[in-house]
Amino acid sequence: MRPSLRLALAAAASAASAANTAAAFTSQTASAPFVARSASSAASSSSSVVVASSSSSSPSALAMSDSSATDGSAEQPAAAAAVSTREEITSRMSIPLTFDEMVRQAAGAMEDAYEGGKARQTIRVLLPRDPTNDQIGQYLENDADVDTANLVLAPPDETWQGGIMQLYRAAAPTCQEILRRFSRDTAGVPPKMIEDRSVDESGVDGVGLWLTQSSLPLNDVSCFVQPTQETVDAVETIHAQAGPRLVALMNPQWRNADDALDAASKSGGVLGGFASFLGGKGRSLERLDRMGFVNVYTLEGYVCKGGNVRMVKRFDSDWAVFAENDAGTGYVPVGTSEGRPTYQDVEAMLDDKGIALKYARDIGLAPKI
Questions:
Q1: pLDDT at 142
Q2: For a designed S-S bond to 308, which of 9, 49, 232, 324 qualifies (C-beta 3.0 to 4.6 A apart)?
Q3: Of 133, 246, 124, which is closest to residue 182 (Cα–Cα)?
Q4: Where is this region: Disordered (predicted)?
Q5: 39-53, pLDDT tens digit by residue?
Q6: How many Å apart are CA 119 and CA 339, to the nearest integer?
Q7: Cβ count within 10 A of residue 267
Q8: Could you count the other beta carbons within 10 Å of the beta carbon of residue 343?
Q9: Which residue in 49, 42, 48, 51 sits closest to 20, CA to CA?
Q10: Taking the alpha carbons of 254, 260, 264, 266 in that order, is the dihedral positive or negative?
Q11: How confident is the model at residue 148, as a pLDDT?
């Protein structure tokens, strides 16, 4: 037999053997569509395609394909669970009606955030106020006693007659109660409280630093009360010294919402620097962001359509908006928002709920809440 004919017959036999092997492999792996398609295409194609299909159906390739499919299917339920959890937390949000209830909410949010690795926290709360503060003709407002139920929770706004120092006299005991509730001492002994007013260089800016001394130094907490932008230098110093210990800011004196100067100070460049020099908070917030400060608990309020509105948010929830009922005994939910709702957003929520102006409700022109 000629050598050329012998080589041709050998090549034909080799091709037939490869086709039979591919067909057998196809029948064994019919449950894997990707492999079956590769094997069937190999049986009807050249030997080079058979090699390609065998490499693509290798155990490592199959493992990568299976793992990627598994990871993708696992991520989707996890993401859905995270969304539902956030929605669930938001649905459970409520407006505290008493001082103790507000302290529990704030301390609980701080503890949850700290356990989640957030050791630099910012909280905003309402302050205890004497219930006679709104009496006409009264020119001297008494400080509220947090040890009694004879108080109201009021936003720290410009209606306080004593200004920022009166706000500090209400904020300081509030901070103490929150830190006591947050205390991580297992012995049940409340931590020692130390007030440092040296951070208030002028003495009249209403700024203070409260420190707790626990049985374990690791559980010590530093909390700046009503810090200003000028206090950020002191915050950086405490931040560097505290390590994993909690450092908190309570009721910073800059607003949550941005005015034109604040927006310009966040733009950077010469304009941003000039806006920061004039009082814009952009640069101060950048420094706090670098230190890792996050908003953990926020409870705010103002008047909209003549009635009291309250907004509350945790670090792991959306904003929940409530309107005070006409009896003044509680709050009804009116809406939620992922971002901080503007005044116009809140007004639209009230309209959607059919809540009219308060004077119209008072004189019977609209239904009461």
A1: 75
A2: 324
A3: 246
A4: 55-85
A5: 333 334 333 333 333
A6: 23
A7: 13
A8: 11
A9: 42
A10: positive
A11: 72
Query: Tell me: the pLDDT tens digits for 288-305?
Result: 999 999 999 999 999 999
String of DSSP letters for 78-102: HHHHHHHHHHHHHHT-----SHHHH
d(CA 152, CA 159): 14
Q: Are strands 208-213 and 192-196 parallel, antiparallel or unpaired?
A: antiparallel
The residue type of 94 is S
3-state helix, strand, coil in the chain (%, to 5): 50, 15, 35
Tokens coding 96: 């505290």
Three-state SS at 22: helix
Question: Whose structure tokens read 């230098």?
Answer: 233
DSSP per-residue codes, 259-291: -HHHHHHTS-HHHHHHHHHTT-SHHHHHHHHHH
Maximum CA extent, the chain: 126
What does the DSSP assignment read for 207-258?
A: -EEEEEE-SSGGG-EEEEES--GGGHHHHHHHHHHHTTSEEEEES-SS-SS-
pLDDT(36) > 50:
no
| Cβ pair 195, 175 in contact under 8 A | no
